[in-house]
Design a protein that fits this description.
Layout (H helix, E strand, L loop, with lengths): L10 H9 L5 E5 L5 H5 L7 E4 L4 H9 L12 E4 L10 H13 L6 E4 L1 H9 L3 E5 L8 E4 L5
Parallel strand pairs: 1-5, 2-5, 3-4
Antiparallel strand pairs: 1-6, 3-6
Helix pairs in contact: 3-4
Amino acid sequence: MLKGIDSRMPADLLDVLMRMGHGDEIAVVDCNYPAHSSAAGTVTGRVIELPGFSAPEAIEMVCTLMPLDPFVPEGALWMEVDGKGAQPNPVHEEAIAILAREMPEGGGVGAIARQDFYARARQGFAVLRCTETRGYGCFILRKGVIL
């Protein structure tokens, strides 16, 4: 046990967050996302499982340790619902509230089309799958720096 770290944080996730550098991205995905096929192309090449967490809960836990990147227009992205564009649904609204609170000054949160999300997640550092059941509950978080 370590002080100051959520006891539900799996060692695999802690390891990944420590190995990520500025600009590396982690995808936080829902239970319907093709996590294993997507993760095969990432730096780690595997899925980190986070059972029992909604996407907003997973994001909140990650953000307790990992700073978000304010040096790009969007330090975090959420997956758009097909045909609705950048209209957030409830899971997005919950996560956006957390991300807005955690985003350093100058950073932003944006939307990304589903197919573009898939392509970007495959090029990221890791895929974190939670048990979020709400559709399109997928996000990309870009690691920032501690100033």
